[in-house]
Amino acid sequence: MIRSAVAIHPACLGLYCGRTVLAVNGSVETYGDCGVCPRGQRTDENKICRECVGSPDRYDWLYLGFMAMLPLVLHWFFIEWYSGKKSSSALLQHITALLECSVAAIVTLLVSDPVGSLHIRSCKVKKLSDWYTMLYNPSPDYITTVHCTHEAVYPLYTIVFIYYAFCLVLMMLLRPLLVKKIACGLGKSDRFKSIYAALYFFPVLTVLQAVGGGLLYYAFPYIILVLSLVTLAVYMSASEVESFKDLLVRKKRLVVLVSHWLLHAYGIISISKLDKLEQDLPLLALVPAPALFYVLTAKYTEPSRILSEGGNGH
């Protein structure tokens, strides 16, 4: 059934149900029945499906960057975990993982609309429910459900799945050949463990995005800060770092420290969004604070010292 813009429309139920524009004749638009909007469109305030013509804002790009970092960080963790202390193949595997994720990110942007460009068009995220439109399908008579599920946050939800798929394909094409050639110092059963680990964590990341994508969108800056602080403290404790000299003795420790500082900075930038540079940029001076605090207070929390002082007290 076709209706014109001058007709009186019955109410379009549901938060995300809308009418598709079938034809435009001058200033008059012709609409279809109330239903689901096509991919790449979302409803406006008049319940009309409008094409997403905006661009992701800074926070959207930071969110996509966070989701892109997750598989890379996990790759690096498991490569380091299974490569062994004396393995010379770890560095090359780290570089390969970075190459895989970088190429996957570029290809994902190129295949997204508009195809062939690193720019993408998107709909603006307005509220948490935009991520979960499947929960807001109306039932006018409490029997029949009108299905209006669509990607209201286009393309922030599905682009992550596409990126993970390309990451997985590139890993399966490149990494096994590389590992087979360079990981001679490892046993046959250990060579491919970092790849096997990826075959486990990619499905986990996919489910995480499918179920918690909207929650991650709003919480990821705080997740970055908390996890980076905890992992830095655990690493420094496990490495028995008690002074700045201990950090500079081994290059690996310095690399880990700088990596955590970059994550701290990323989290701070994501929270502040750098809307007011003169107020937000000074916050980056806090990046080294956790490491400085740990080093300055480590000697006071040494378990052996606490036990000895407790024994002297008695």
From TrEMBL:
One of its GO terms (cellular component) is membrane. The chain crosses the membrane at residues 61-79, 91-111, 154-174, 195-216, 222-241, 253-269, 281-298. One of its GO terms (biological process) is ERAD pathway. GO terms for molecular function: ubiquitin protein ligase binding. Residues 1-23 form the signal peptide. Keywords: Membrane, Signal, Transmembrane, Transmembrane helix. It comes from the Eukaryota. This is JNK1/MAPK8 associated membrane protein. It comes from Anser cygnoides (Swan goose). The gene is JKAMP.
